[in-house]
Amino acid sequence: MGKLLCILASLLACLSLNAQNPCAGCWGKNDTSATLTTQDKKTLRLYSKLQWYDFSTYRFKGSGKRAVWISYAIAGILHGGREAYHAEPTAFEKRFNAAPQSWFGSEQWKRQYYNRDPENMPHKPNIWNPLRDYYHFSGTGTKYLLIGGAVTIGASKQPTKYKIVDTLIAFAGFSATASLTYTLLR
Fold this sequence. Notes:
By secondary structure, the chain is mainly alpha-helical. It contains 7 helices and no strands.
């Protein structure tokens, strides 16, 4: 039900944005496209051919890269904790002395039911699932952080090969923090 509402909200937003500009059809010509300035072209090196092996203009900072790498590291921590819980549900109880039915506990899934009793039907509303326990929170949080980082890297004004390098750095951080978190919790 939640996915359907998200799709309908997206469709409504697209249609309302399209209605604001009567000259542009849904997939018609859009005359309001951005144009590159001379500085943008120099930055992107559109005036000269950039060889695949030339990384002389690559910058480790800027364009939100630091925020992307930090978000990928956080996503790795969340994912590593989720995998540790999945492999051994008592991982948080052993490491942090969490109660079994707490947000981190081995029986956190019971928090999805009224009075934490699976016999009490119906299930609590699904819209709050990502906030009720660590397992659901970490899955949702990881997805949003990874998608947000990918959009930030993709929207940056730099050559495609630099975007690929940035993505590889981000996923290296994601993998390293996920592996470290999993190892520490197990």
